């Protein structure tokens, strides 16, 4: 990384509980490509003040994490199509004081659905009803999927999510048979749920494709079970790498290769 200097362009993240993931990902690529950029994570209790600072200080890019993804909407000048699709923001680009908002989580999921050539006629069973679930459900809807069931214990959140995008909500596991199963819950994530299998093995056996949005670890119990059963797999590690790569390109205007994304992603996970 270049020595700090007056011309260095700053990008930041704002989160309730910042991590080093984005910091390591972006700074790794700035260093590799010789860009006069720096990236720093911040926590804040004053979102409006922080966004005023983004404008006033000419901060080029701002990643937005929980709990600010919806609260930041009134503070920006433009919602692009990806942010409008789910009324949620995870990326802000500052062009001369004008703040444009994106959702690169939605963009990453949409890209992966397309890359995997998933069949829009296939029935989908999705477990979860949080903010990321909204990005995933919207991406399936916009890819033309007509049969999707939201499986969520929280009736208010689950029903609202399903209704918003024209799908069905259920509280309990339906019979196996969905061709695509998607986990958008913490089940399988590093921590107390690390050993949890997000779907019974009967659902895995019946599916053609398994999509686990959990990013840490990359090989969750669900992903391991799906690979062992010979299923097509999309992982949360792919989602988080693609969304960060899209942020990088929005901030810098520099396109990066799949190899560079893979190296930066591996470096970010190692720290």
Provide an overview of this structure.
The protein is of the alpha/beta class and 271 residues long. It folds into two domains: 9-103 and 238-270, 3-Layer(aba) Sandwich (Rossmann fold); 107-237, Rossmann fold (3-Layer(aba) Sandwich). Helices cover 40% and strands 20% of the residues. The strands form two sheets. Strands 2-1-3-5-6-4 form a six-stranded mixed beta sheet, with helices on both faces. Strands 9-8-7-10-11-12 form a six-stranded parallel beta sheet, sandwiched between helices. α1 (21-33) links the parallel β1 (9-15) and β2. The relative contact order is 0.13.
Secondary-structure blueprint:
Layout: E1 9-15, H1 21-33, E2 37-43, H2 47-56, E3 61-64, E4 78-79, H3 81-86, E5 91-95, E6 98-102, H4 104-115, E7 124-127, H5 131-142, E8 148-151, H6 155-165, E9 168-170, E10 180-183, H7 201-206, E11 209-212, H8 221-228, E12 232-235, H9 236-252, H10 258-270
Parallel strand pairs: 1-2, 1-3, 4-6, 7-8, 7-10, 8-9, 10-11, 11-12
Antiparallel strand pairs: 3-5, 5-6
Helix pairs in contact: 1-10, 4-5, 4-9, 9-10
């Amino acid at each position: 990384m270049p020595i700090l200097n007056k011309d260095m362009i700053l990008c930041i993240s704002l989160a309730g509980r910042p991590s080093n993931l984005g910091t390591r990902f972006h700074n790794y690529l700035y260093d590799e490509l010789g860009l006069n950029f720096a990236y720093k994570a911040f926590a804040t209790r004053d979102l409006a003040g922080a966004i005023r600072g983004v404008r006033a200080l000419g901060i080029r890019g701002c990643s937005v994490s929980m709990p600010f993804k919806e609260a930041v909407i009134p503070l920006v000048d433009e919602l692009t199509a990806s942010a409008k699709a789910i009324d949620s923001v995870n990326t802000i680009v500052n062009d001369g004081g004008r703040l444009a908002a994106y959702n690169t989580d939605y963009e990453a999921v949409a890209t992966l659905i397309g890359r995997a050539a998933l069949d829009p006629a296939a029935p989908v069973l999705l477990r979860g009803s949080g903010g990321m679930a909204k990005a995933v459900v919207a991406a399936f809807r916009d890819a033309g999927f007509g049969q999707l069931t939201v499986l969520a214990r929280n009736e208010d959140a689950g029903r609202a999510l399903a209704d918003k995008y024209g799908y069905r909500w259920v509280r309990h596991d339906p019979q196996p048979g969905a061709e695509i199963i998607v986990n958008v819950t913490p089940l399988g994530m590093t921590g107390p749920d690390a050993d949890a299998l997000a779907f019974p093995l009967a659902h895995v056996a019946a599916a053609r494709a398994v999509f686990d949005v959990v990013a840490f670890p990359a090989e969750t119990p669900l992903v391991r079970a799906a690979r062992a059963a010979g299923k097509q797999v999309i992982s949360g590690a792919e989602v988080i790498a693609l969304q960060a790569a899209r942020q990088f390109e929005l901030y810098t205007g520099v396109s990066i290769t799949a190899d560079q994304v893979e190296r930066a992603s591996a470096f970010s996970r190692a720290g």
